[in-house]
Specification:
By secondary structure, this protein is of the alpha/beta class. It has four domains: 100 residues, Rossmann fold (3-Layer(aba) Sandwich), CATH 3.40.50; 191 residues, Rossmann fold (3-Layer(aba) Sandwich); 64 residues, Helicase, Ruva Protein, domain 3; 52 residues, Orthogonal Bundle (Arc Repressor Mutant, subunit A). Helices cover 45% and strands 14% of the residues. The strands form six sheets. The chain has a five-stranded parallel beta sheet, sandwiched between helices. Strands 11-12-15-10-16 form a five-stranded parallel beta sheet. The N and C termini lie far apart (53 Å).
Length: 466
C-alpha cells in the first residue's frame, strides 16, 4: 500500500488529511515538526509527503533535502499564500502547492495522480531513448543539441503539475510542445484545449474563459461553459498570453492560485482542476515593461520556462524535418517523392523567418508542384535568406567606411544570422571555410571579435554551433 507522510503542526489538520489519504487507499504517518518528519522518513521512505510550508522548527521545503533524488513527491500546503512562495515551491520541485483551507477535491485529484507517476517516468525514459534513434520526442522533431536540451526540460516537467511558460518565435512549435507535455502527464486521458488569447474579442474573452450564465448579457440565451470548465481534469494551453486584457489577467492569477473562478453573471464560485501552460512569441520581460503582461502573473506562469529555438539555430534539423514531412505526404498519397541534393542545400541556407510552420508550407507546396519523384530547385525556387529573420543583424555601411571594416561587419552579421554555423556562413558569403577561419583568426588577434563569437572560436565548423 502506498505510504504518505503528513507534516503539519495543527493536529486537527493532520487528522483531516490522514482521513482523506486513507479514503484514497494510502497508508499514512503524521509529524508536527521537521525533526519528527525526518525521523519518520528514516523509519519508512514515503511515496509522497504532504507538508505545511511553515513549521515550528523551519520551512517545509527543507524536506526536499531529506528525500533527495529518490522520486518522492512533495505537496506543500500553506495558509499564507503568495505568488513568490508558490513559484519558489514549484521551482524547488513540489508536485503541487495547495492553499488552506485545502480544497478536498483538488487534494484527492493530486493523490490519485501519484499512482501513475512511476509509470509516466518509465514511459518518458523510453521516449528519450527513442528520440536519440529517430529524432522525435512526443510531437516534436529534430535531433540537434539545442532540441535535446528542450526534450530534457519537457521530460522533467511533464509528470509534475508545474505551470510551464513556452517562449519562442512564431512557428517554432510551442503548441506541439504543450501537447507533448500534456500527453506525457497524468492528465493525458483528459481534455487538452488550446486557446489563442489574441484571436478572441476582448469583449468576449472573459465569457470564453470562465463561461456565463443565461441572461448575463445581451445574447446570452443559455448557460455557457468556458474553457476552464471544459478542460476540467486536463490541460489548458493559453497561446499569446500577452494579448490577454489586463483585467482578465488578474482573474487568471486567482484561478492559478485557488483553482476557483466565477462565470460571468454570477457570484457563485466554480472549481476546475486544470493545469495551465502558456506561451508567447515576445520577450516576456519586455512585455511586463510595456504593460502587456502583469508582473505578478508573469512570475506565476514563469515557474518552468522553456525556450523553443528558431529553426535557423537547429543545424541539420531542417533537413530531417523536411524529409519526415515529405515521407508523411508520400504515405498519404502513395508516392515516392524525394528532394534533389541542391534543394536540401538551399533548405540549409534559408533563414526561415517563419520557422517550422514556413518549412511545412514549403514542403506541401513542393509536393504539389512536383511532376515526378524528384523535387528540384527549379520547380520550387527558394531564395536563400530572402527575408531577414527576426533578430538578425543589420549591416550598415556608411560612406567613407573602409572595405576591410565593411567586410568584417558583413562576416559577423552573416555568422549571427546563421546562429554561428561557420560552414553555412561561408557558403552564403561565397568563400571557403578555411578563408573564413583565417579571417576570424586575424580578427581575434586584433581583439575585434564580438563576445558571442569569441565563445565559439575553437569550434570545428561541423557542429551545430560551429
Amino acid at each position: 500500500m502506498p505510504h504518505i507522510l503528513i507534516v503539519d503542526d495543527d493536529e486537527n489538520a493532520c487528522a483531516a488529511l490522514a482521513e482523506i489519504v486513507a479514503m484514497e487507499g494510502f497508508s499514512s504517518a503524521t509529524a508536527g515538526t521537521l525533526r519528527e518528519a525526518r525521523l519518520q522518513i528514516g523509519w519508512r521512505m514515503p511515496e509522497a509527503i504532504v507538508a505545511d510550508l511553515r513549521l515550528p522548527d523551519g520551512n517545509g521545503m527543507e524536506l526536499f533535502d531529506e528525500v533527495g533524488a529518490s522520486g518522492v513527491e512533495v505537496i506543500l500546503t500553506t495558509g499564507y499564500a503568495s505568488v513568490e512562495s508558490a513559484v519558489e515551491a514549484l521551482r524547488a520541485g513540489a508536485t503541487d502547492y495547495l492553499v488552506k483551507p485545502i480544497n478536498v477535491a483538488r487534494l484527492q485529484t493530486v493523490l490519485r495522480r501519484l499512482a501513475t507517476t512511476g509509470e509516466l517516468r518509465a514511459e518518458i525514459h523510453s521516449l528519450r531513448g527513442e528520440l536519440r534513434r529517430y529524432g522525435r520526442f512526443g510531437r516534436l522533431m529534430g535531433s540537434s543539441e539545442v532540441m535535446q536540451v528542450v526534450y530534457d526540460q519537457l521530460a522533467r516537467v511533464a509528470p509534475t503539475e508545474a505551470t510551464v511558460l513556452l517562449i519562442g518565435e512564431s512557428g517554432t512549435g510551442k503548441e506541439l510542445a504543450a501537447q507533448t507535455v500534456h500527453e506525457l502527464s497524468s492528465r493525458r486521458r483528459q481534455p487538452f484545449l488550446a486557446v489563442n488569447c489574441g484571436a478572441i474579442s476582448p469583449t468576449l474573452i472573459e465569457s470564453e474563459m470562465f463561461g456565463h450564465e443565461r441572461g448575463s448579457f445581451t445574447g446570452a440565451d443559455r448557460q455557457h461553459k468556458g474553457y476552464f470548465e471544459r478542460a476540467d481534469g486536463g490541460t489548458l494551453f493559453l497561446d499569446e498570453i500577452t494579448e490577454m486584457p489586463a483585467e482578465l489577467q488578474v482573474k487568471l492569477l486567482r484561478v492559478l492560485e485557488t483553482g476557483t473562478f466565477m462565470r460571468v453573471g454570477t457570484n457563485r464560485e466554480c472549481h476546475a482542476d486544470v493545469r495551465v501552460l502558456a506561451a508567447t512569441n515576445r520577450n516576456p520581460e519586455d512585455a511586463v515593461a510595456d504593460g502587456k503582461l502583469r508582473a505578478d502573473l508573469f512570475h506565476r506562469l514563469n515557474v518552468f520556462p522553456v525556450e523553443l529555438p528558431p529553426l535557423r539555430a537547429r543545424g541539420d534539423d531542417v533537413i530531417q524535418i523536411a524529409n519526415l514531412m515529405l515521407d508523411q505526404l508520400n504515405a498519404e498519397q502513395g508516392t515516392q517523392r524525394r528532394f534533389a541534393p541542391n534543394v536540401l542545400d538551399s533548405l540549409r541556407l534559408h533563414a526561415w523567418p517563419g520557422n517550422v510552420r514556413e518549412l511545412r508550407n514549403f514542403v506541401q507546396r513542393a509536393f504539389i508542384m512536383s511532376d515526378d519523384d524528384l523535387i528540384t530547385e527549379v520547380q520550387v525556387p527558394l531564395q536563400v535568406a530572402a527575408t531577414q529573420a527576426p533578430g538578425a543583424a543589420v549591416v550598415s555601411v556608411p560612406v567613407g567606411m573602409s572595405l576591410a571594416d565593411a567586410d568584417r561587419q558583413l562576416i559577423f552579421a552573416t555568422l549571427e544570422q546563421c546562429a554561428g554555423v561557420k560552414k553555412h556562413a561561408a557558403e552564403i558569403l561565397g568563400i571557403s571555410l578555411k578563408t573564413l577561419y583565417n579571417r576570424l583568426e586575424d580578427y581575434a588577434a586584433r581583439g575585434e571579435l564580438p563576445e558571442w563569437l569569441r565563445a565559439s572560436r575553437n569550434d570545428t565548423g561541423s557542429s551545430a554551433t560551429g
